[in-house]
Amino acid sequence: MDLIWEDGFTIEVHVQKGTAVISANREGLLSLSNHLKTLAEEAPGSHIHLDELNALEDGSCELILERTE
Q1: The domain containing residue 57 runs over which residues?
Q2: Could you tell me which of 63, 66, 68 has the C-alpha nearest to residue 13?
Q3: Residue 61 and residue 16 in contact, taking contact as beta carbons nearer than 8 Å
Q4: What is the pLDDT of residue 35?
Q5: Residues 3-53 pLDDT 10s
Q6: How far is 33 from 2, CA to CA, in rounded Å?
Q7: Contacts of 37 (CB under 8 A, 6+ apart)
Q8: Most exposed: 30, 34, 38, 69, by fewest CB within 10 Å?
Q9: Tally of domains within the chain
Q10: What pTM was computed for the model?
Q11: What is the SS3 string spanning the chain?
Q12: Residue 5's closest CA among 26, 40, 31, 25?
């Protein structure tokens, strides 16, 4: 799966009082929207795993986007 990242993106994921919060700049939001569109075209069970080692800002929680049915 080819993911398209916008230059200069920043994305943070945190859990606050049981609520997942995704914070991103414009480029980060565009990148996430591209990823969701790409994932929608993949087979059920496909997923995108994001963490601070491959895309998210330091201190972020892991984020897994998964295609179901």
Answers
A1: 11-66
A2: 63
A3: no
A4: 96
A5: 999 999 999 999 999 999 999 999 999 999 999 999 999 999 999 999 999
A6: 13
A7: none
A8: 69
A9: 1
A10: 0.87
A11: CCCCCCCCCCEEEEEECCEEEEEECHHHHHHHHHHHHHHHCCCCCCEEEECCCCCCCCCCCCEEEECCC
A12: 31
How many C-beta neighbours within 10 Å does residue 8 have?
Answer: 10
Tokens of 45: 């069970």
How many CA atoms does the CB half-sphere of 63 hold within 13 Å? 21
Amino acid at 20: A
pLDDT attached to residue 65: 96
Let me know if residue 56 belongs to a domain: yes
4 in any annotated domain: no
pLDDT of residue 48: 96
How far is residue 50's CA from residue 17's CA, in Å, rounded to a whole number? 21
Structure tokens at 24: 């991103």
